[in-house]
Design goal:
The structure holds three protein chains of three kinds. By secondary structure, chain A is mainly alpha-helical. Chain A has a domain of about 40 residues. Chain A is about 40% helix and about 5% strand. Chain A contains three helices and two strands, in the order αααββ. A two-stranded antiparallel sheet of chain A has the order 1-2. The longest helix of chain A is centred in the N-terminal third of the chain and has 19 residues. The radius of gyration of chain A is 23 Å and the shape is flat. Chain B has a domain of about 290 residues: Alpha-Beta Complex (Amidase signature (AS) enzymes), CATH 3.90.1300.10. Helices cover about 35% and strands about 15% of the residues of chain B. An eleven-stranded mixed β-sheet of chain B has the order 1-3-2-4-6-5-10-11-9-7-8, sandwiched between helices. In chain B, helix 6 runs antiparallel to helix 16 and helix 9 crosses helix 11. The radius of gyration of chain B is 21 Å and the shape is globular. Classes of the chains: A mainly alpha, B alpha/beta, C alpha+beta. The interface between A and B is large, with 52 and 82 residues.
Chain lengths: ~90, ~450, ~425
């Protein structure tokens, strides 16, 4: 992975690294991807993909309203202004 | 070893029992770092601890991460809720690798240490849960495993660690690492205690779509498979101890057969690809304005605000977010993410074939407990390779139990027994019969009643 | 020129797509829970009705509905998106490969997907304000092929689509948003997040003209994302959104796959098709009939009920009248009386109509057309400029029509018809 591609990835996932972290992580990542690439030596043919390890029985929820009783508990973890949650500038 | 829960309930508690318990625990915790907080108001019930990635209402829940510091969940995880309403009492949150990212409990601010020798690791990522179980006489731990995070520390700390079939216990209230792999499990000092807790917390939940209400089986064919490639990956010292265990198990009436599964080591890269891909989406929400840790610079443009907030992730979390984002990028997704999902299918099919006819037994870890300084020096790939024995059952969602079987040089060793999906009770029965002839050792018995 | 659309509509459910919170509430952040706030540890649970409605829309638009549908995570960062990923559909959406006929043109429907709405975001100078009541509201996204080749077809497509959605119970006035893809030349320009039909059409008009100007000046049209400024009625370049590469879609492992076989889809009603068919079968004006029934299930019901028994023209006139006074439950006998009056050219006022509705006998007089013609001629004599004004603006005669309608209780359409004949000098 070249430095530009690495920087692009960091931007995509909104991660910034200081100098030390960057040196460390870029080398690690190189090695880890090499390790991941070993998977491609392995022939999987037309095997289907397993999104889960077991078959998940389908479960749906009836369209019924049930209010959550502790909305204050949710909002306490945020900064609020007149019942709105404050977020960063756009 | 019998049920400590029944024993506890039958015993008269001396006056001030819980206060003494809290004090005794707080004292020892200073050296061992198992608990992030201790519930000083506990006054009745059988104590249980909760891994820090499980939500406990009104108790700070950080999943071992600074980015969640100050986060107070407004609800209980389903397993916490169910235990709390069954004569069990919350004792405290236990330390862990940040978001479960680690095999030695070192990727966090509060490092739990091995109770047998504090120079050694406790294992990870459920480090605190294992240490808590190892030092408390009457206690069970709610823990969680994604790729071996229960087996691993249970083995290093000498306790029994049960990871049920994927979907057996509701994940509602679990701070997600990798949703298709995360399993809530239990640690205790005996299989009996685990069974008691499992009976309470398992079963469908209207808040978790992947939690199933399937009937459990209990099939034991008195057959044990050993996997050649897994034994080859184990170091000599562990191997010779494990061979002795195999002989004992033969004496218990089991027939033992060695099998070869050529591609089993492919489970490791497949596991890390899937888990990192999912983790990188789960960690996208930590942007500094909704859960606890608050960035107050709202006038910063949102991209800069988010990036600045996300600098609170630890190095391993950053590494996994970047890698996870990479492996699911549209241009390489086929090569990594989708490929890993296919490998998972093959692993389930091939390992599943063996498990139809018997259990698989492996050492839990391929090495003896490492010293902290040694574990710190491992490169990521070296560390990931240490998970070779715990990842195969984990990626396939097969139930497994790690149990102590030997104490060379005074440090515990654990072995791991694996079974087919939903045959969880057969494993607990197996460990129970092991416990009739083998006594586990503990260095501390905090909360003992004489 | 090619236009493609991505239309978002909110589904008529009581609760949200993945949690039990009330789907539509006023007081900010009053209808929130750990799930729609994306709190760590919360998990989604799919709303049965939203799935049924999604499948119903897909079937109405002639889509193929996969045996099993699934959900994916679309990762992007914006303050209104609580989990920083949206649960949407990629690999197996509720529908794909459909078509919709609009004004005789077949518009391809590429895909239809169920997804969750983000929170409502209010931009302030130094921060944003977020209302999570909207977070998790069930949306359906309808993606067309770039088969729309004119503004007229765009308009027809939107009307047709809205009519179908209306008959499936979707409140099309609640939330109707679209992204437009317009390419006059090679390059494609995307205009994001336009609210309401009028704005969608105005934005398209502006953008077509803008691109045409660039092309005729031999300039390149840059491929870009733009947004529509409602106040100024122009499109302007906007923030570049992430591409598929960055979204990094993965299967949402918190959900399972869902079978569609046993879903009882709502039956679609194609009101415009019915209007066309009845207009030719029962000899009525197709447009008048369409206008009456496209967004009015009561009117369509009455037409269906009485179409064989009464003359269609009178039926349409009567229903229009009932509509005007909000009467939707008229009985057979009263309706017969009303139809009798209307078919004789009479246009009852409110008082008379209420009498009929109440079951009273009302005498139906045959309107004497000659009398009307005379009245019109006299009016023109008094106001000779009206003919000139009418040619410039047909609305100029509205006042006169109103006067005569009132005086003779005759249907305004009859007056218009007579007027046209008189103005044409016949």
């Amino acid at each position: 992975m070249d430095a530009n591609e690495f920087d692009r990835l960091l931007k995509v996932c909104r991660i910034s690294l200081n100098h030390d972290e960057k040196d460390r992580i870029i080398n690690d990542i190189e090695e880890i991807i090499k390790y991941f690439n070993t998977l491609n030596e392995f022939e999987t043919g037309n095997t289907s993909e397993s999104y889960h390890a077991i078959r998940i029985p389908e479960r749906l929820r009836q369209d019924k309203v049930e209010a959550f009783q502790n909305t204050n508990g949710i909002l306490k973890n945020t900064k609020t202004y007149r019942f709105y949650v404050v977020g960063p500038k756009i | 070893m019998s049920s400590s829960i029944k024993e506890f309930q039958s015993k008269e508690k001396p006056e001030g029992y819980y206060k003494k318990l809290v004090n005794g625990l707080s004292e020892v915790n200073k050296q061992l770092g198992a608990f992030l907080n201790i519930n000083e108001t506990i006054k009745d019930g059988f104590p249980f601890s909760v891994k820090d990635n499980l939500c406990v209402r009104d108790v700070e829940t950080k999943a071992g991460s600074e980015i969640l510091s100050g986060y107070i969940p407004p609800f209980n995880a389903t397993c916490v809720e169910r235990l709390s309403s069954s004569k069990f009492s919350f004792l405290g949150k236990t330390s862990m690798d940040e978001f479960g990212f680690g095999s030695f409990g070192l990727n966090t601010m509060c490092v739990a240490k091995n109770p047998f020798n504090t120079a050694y690791v406790a294992g990870g990522s459920s480090s605190g849960a294992a240490v808590a179980t190892s030092i408390l006489k009457y206690h069970v731990a709610l823990a969680e495993s994604t790729g071996g995070s229960i087996s691993n520390p249970a083995a290093f700390c000498g306790v029994v660690g049960f990871t049920p079939t994927y979907g057996a216990i509701s994940r509602y209230g679990l701070v997600d690492y990798a949703n298709s792999l995360d399993k809530i499990g239990i640690m205790a000092r005996s299989s009996e205690d685990i069974r008691t807790v499992f009976d309470i917390v398992k079963g469908p939940d209207s808040y978790d779509s992947t939690c199933v209400g399937i009937k459990f089986t209990n099939v034991n064919n008195k057959k044990i498979f050993l996997i050649k490639q897994l034994l080859d990956a184990t170091d000599e010292k562990v191997r010779s101890e494990f061979d002795k265990l195999v002989s004992k198990i033969r004496e218990m009436g089991y027939s033992v057969e060695e099998k070869s599964l050529e591609f089993i080591e492919k489970a490791i890269p497949a596991y890390y690809i899937i888990s990192m891909a999912e983790a990188s989406t789960n960690l996208a929400k930590y942007n500094g304005y909704k859960y606890g840790f608050k960035n107050e610079n709202f006038s910063e443009e949102y991209n800069r605000f988010f990036t600045e907030s996300r600098s609170k992730f630890g190095v391993e979390a950053k590494r996994r977010v970047v890698l996870g984002t990479f492996v699911r990028s549209a241009s390489v997704k086929e090569k990594y993410y989708r490929k890993a999902l296919k490998v998972r299918s093959l692993l389930i099919r091939e390992i599943g074939k063996l498990l139809k006819n018997g259990f698989i037994l492996t050492p839990t870890m391929p090495i003896t407990t490492p010293k902290i300084e040694k574990a710190v020096s491992l490169t990521p790939v070296e560390a990931y390779r240490m998970d070779i024995l715990t990842i195969p059952p984990s990626i396939c969602g097969f139930p497994h139990v790690s149990f102590p079987y030997s104490y060379p040089n005074g440090m515990p060793l654990g072995a791991q027994i694996i079974s087919d999906h939903f045959n969880d009770y057969a494993l607990l029965d197996f460990v129970k019969s092991w416990e009739t002839s083998f006594r586990y050792k503990f260095k501390y018995n905090i909360g003992d009643i004489r | 020129m090619k236009i493609g659309l991505e239309v978002h509509v909110a589904l008529p459910t009581d609760s949200k797509l993945f949690c039990s919170c009330k789907a539509y509430s006023e007081e900010p952040n009053s209808s929130i829970c750990p799930i729609c706030m994306g709190l760590p540890g919360s998990k989604p649970m799919l709303n049965e009705k939203a799935l049924m409605l999604g499948v119903s829309i897909a079937k109405a638009l002639g889509c193929k509905v996969p045996e099993k549908i699934s959900f994916s995570r679309k990762v992007y960062f914006y303050p209104d998106l609580p989990k920083s990923y949206q649960i949407t559909q990629v690999d197996a959406p509720v529908g794909h490969s459909g078509t919709l006929e609009a004004d005789g043109v077949s518009i391809g429907i590429r895909r239809i997907q169920l997804e969750e709405d983000p929170a409502k975001i209010i931009r302030e100078e130094e921060y944003t304000l977020l209302d999570f009541n909207r977070s998790g509201v069930p949306l359906v996204e309808i993606v067309t092929e770039p088969d729309i080749k004119s503004e007229a077809i765009l308009r027809a497509f939107l009307t047709e689509l809205k009519s179908i959605l209306y008959y499936l119970g979707v409140d099309i006035n609640k939330e109707f948003k679209a992204d437009l893809n317009i390419s006059v030349a090679e390059q494609r320009v995307e205009i994001k997040n336009i609210t309401g039909t009028k704005n969608i059409i105005d934005a398209a008009k502006y953008e077509i003209e803008r691109q045409n100007k660039l092309v005729s000046a031999n300039q390149k049209v840059p491929s870009e994302t733009r947004s529509y400024n409602e106040a100024k009625m122009i499109t302007v370049p906007s923030r570049e959104k992430e591409s598929d590469e960055e979204y990094g879609f993965i299967y949402d492992p918190d959900l399972s796959e869902y079978s569609t076989a046993s879903i009882k889809a709502k039956k679609a009603v194609f009101a415009s098709r019915i209007a066309k068919e009845y207009a030719s079968k029962y000899k009525a004006n197709a447009q008048t009939l369409a206008e009456l029934v496209l967004f009015n299930r009561d009117a369509l019901e009455m037409i269906e009920r009485w179409k064989e028994k009464y003359e269609m023209k009178a039926l349409i006139g009567s229903i229009e009248l009932l509509e005007k006074y909000g009467i939707m439950d008229i009985n057979e006998r009263a309706m017969a009386r009303l139809l009798d009056m209307v078919s004789k050219g009479s246009y009852p006022d409110k008082e008379t109509l209420m009498k009929i509705y109440g079951g009273e006998e009302v005498e139906a007089k045959q309107i004497d057309i000659k009398l009307i013609d005379k009245e019109i001629s006299e009016y023109i004599k008094r106001n000779p400029r009206i003919v000139e004004e009418y040619r410039k603006n047909p609305k100029a005669i509205n006042f006169m029509v109103g006067e005569i309608t009132k005086k003779y209780k005759v249907h305004p359409r009859i007056i218009s018809e007579r007027l046209n004949l008189i103005f044409a000098g016949k």
